[in-house]
C-alpha cells in the first residue's frame, strides 16, 4: 500500500516585517503573511493534488517536500503555486520535474538535489526570478541550451556530482552569477567566452579528473573572482591571464600534471604563481614563447662569436644552409633586416624565415 498524506500537515504563518505606513494596504490584497508549507520527512510516496481543503495552495510562498520518497510532483499542483518563492524537493526519488514549473514566475530558490534527474525541463527558463538553483547529486547529462539567456537573475548555480559533459555556451550570459559549482562531473571543457560573468566570485570545476584538460584564456578576465578550484583534473598549463585576477585569494590546482607553472612554483604560493604567469605574458621567463626565434639563432650559431673565424663544420650541424661559412655583417629580426652601406647583401636575405628554410642554398 502506497504511503500517502496521512500525518497532519505542518502549516506555518510568518509575519513579514513591513513599515506601518504600508501594512493596511498590504492586508487588503493579502500579501502581509508569508505562508510556509512543510511536508518534509513524512515518508510520502504520492503527493495528492489537493493537500488539504483548509490550505489555499496559491498563497504558499515556501513549499518543503524534501526527504520523502516522491517519484513525481503533480503538474496541476505545481501550476497552482502562483506565489511560491522557495521550492525544496531535495532527497526524493524524482526522475523528472513537472513542465508546469515554468508557471512559477516568483520562484527564487529551487532545490532539486539528491534525486534521479537526467535533465531539467526547458520550461525552467520561464522562472526568470530564479536566483539560486541547486541540482547537485543527480544524473544530469546536460543543462537546457538557452538557460543563460533566460535566467538572468541567477546568482548561484550548483550542479556538482552529475554526469555533465559540458556547460551550455549560454552560461556565459549569466551576468549576475556569483557562484558556479560544477565539480565531480565529466566536463571536457568550459565555455570560451566566460568574460561576461563579471560578478562571478567562486568557480569550482574540480574533480572532473581525466576529462578536463584545459581552461579558457577568458578565465583571467573574471575580475571579481575570489576563489578558483580546478584541482584533480588533467590540466598541464594554467592560462597566463590568471595573473590579472587582482581579487583572487585562493587558487587550488593540486592533483593536476602541471607543467606551467611547475609544481615547485605552485608550492610557493599564489603570489609566486601570479609572478610566474606575468613573466610568461611579458616574455621575461626562460620558457616564454617570445624568445623562441632568437633562441634558434643561438642554437644554430648563426650570430655566435664562436663562428667569427669560420671554424664550424656545417656538414655536422643541424640547420646547415650555406656551404662555405662567411661572417654575416647584418642585423636580422623576424620583420626587419638592415644591411650596412656597401654590403652586397640584398634585403631579406638573412631573415630568420630564410635562415631556417629547408632549402640548402638561397635562390635568386
UniProtKB/TrEMBL annotation:
Keyword terms, alphabetized: Leucine-rich repeat, Repeat
CC terms in the record's Gene Ontology section: cytoplasm
Entry keyword Repeat: yes
A Pfam family the protein falls into: LRR_8
Domain of life according to the entry: Eukaryota
SMART domains for the chain: LRR_BAC, LRR_TYP
Gene Ontology BP terms: defense response; response to other organism
Keyword Repeat carried by entry: yes
Official protein name in the record: Plant intracellular Ras-group-related LRR protein 6-like
Lineage, highest ranks first: Eukaryota, Viridiplantae, Streptophyta, Embryophyta, Tracheophyta
Amino acid at each position: 500500500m502506497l504511503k500517502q498524506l496521512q500525518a497532519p500537515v505542518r502549516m506555518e504563518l510568518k509575519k513579514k516585517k513591513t513599515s506601518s505606513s504600508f501594512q493596511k494596504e498590504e492586508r487588503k490584497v493579502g500579501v502581509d503573511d508569508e505562508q510556509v508549507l512543510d511536508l518534509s520527512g513524512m515518508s510520502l510516496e504520492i503527493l495528492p493534488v489537493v493537500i488539504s481543503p483548509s490550505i489555499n495552495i496559491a498563497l504558499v510562498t515556501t513549499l518543503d517536500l524534501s526527504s520523502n520518497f516522491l517519484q513525481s510532483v503533480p503538474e496541476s499542483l505545481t501550476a497552482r503555486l502562483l506565489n511560491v518563492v522557495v521550492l525544496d524537493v531535495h532527497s526524493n526519488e524524482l526522475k523528472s520535474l513537472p513542465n508546469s514549473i515554468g508557471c512559477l514566475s516568483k520562484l527564487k530558490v529551487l532545490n532539486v538535489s539528491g534525486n534521479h534527474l537526467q535533465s531539467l525541463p526547458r520550461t525552467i527558463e520561464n522562472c526568470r526570478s530564479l536566483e539560486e538553483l541547486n541540482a547537485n547529486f543527480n544524473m544530469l547529462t546536460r543543462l537546457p541550451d538557452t538557460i543563460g539567456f533566460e535566467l538572468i537573475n541567477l546568482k548561484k548555480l550548483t550542479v556538482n556530482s552529475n554526469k555533465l559533459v559540458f556547460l551550455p555556451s549560454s552560461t556565459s550570459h549569466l551576468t549576475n552569477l556569483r557562484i558556479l559549482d560544477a565539480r565531480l562531473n565529466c566536463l571536457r571543457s568550459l565555455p570560451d567566452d566566460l568574460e561576461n560573468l563579471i560578478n562571478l566570485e567562486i568557480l569550482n570545476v574540480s574533480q572532473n579528473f581525466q576529462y578536463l584538460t584545459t581552461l579558457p584564456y577568458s578565465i583571467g578576465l573574471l575580475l571579481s573572482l575570489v576563489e578558483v578550484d580546478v584541482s584533480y583534473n588533467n590540466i598541464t598549463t594554467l592560462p597566463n591571464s590568471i595573473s590579472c585576477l587582482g581579487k583572487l585569494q585562493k587558487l587550488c590546482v593540486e592533483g593536476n600534471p602541471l607543467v606551467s607553472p611547475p609544481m615547485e612554483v605552485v608550492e610557493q604560493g599564489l603570489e609566486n604563481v601570479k609572478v610566474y604567469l606575468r613573466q610568461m605574458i611579458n616574455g621575461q621567463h626562460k620558457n616564454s614563447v617570445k624568445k623562441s626565434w632568437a633562441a634558434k639563432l643561438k642554437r644554430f650559431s648563426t650570430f655566435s662569436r664562436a663562428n667569427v673565424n669560420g671554424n664550424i663544420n656545417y656538414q655536422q650541424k643541424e640547420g646547415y644552409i650555406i656551404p662555405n661559412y662567411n661572417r654575416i655583417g647584418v642585423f636580422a629580426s623576424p620583420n626587419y633586416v638592415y644591411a650596412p652601406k656597401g654590403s652586397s647583401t640584398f634585403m631579406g636575405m638573412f631573415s630568420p624565415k630564410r635562415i631556417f628554410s629547408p632549402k640548402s642554398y638561397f635562390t635568386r
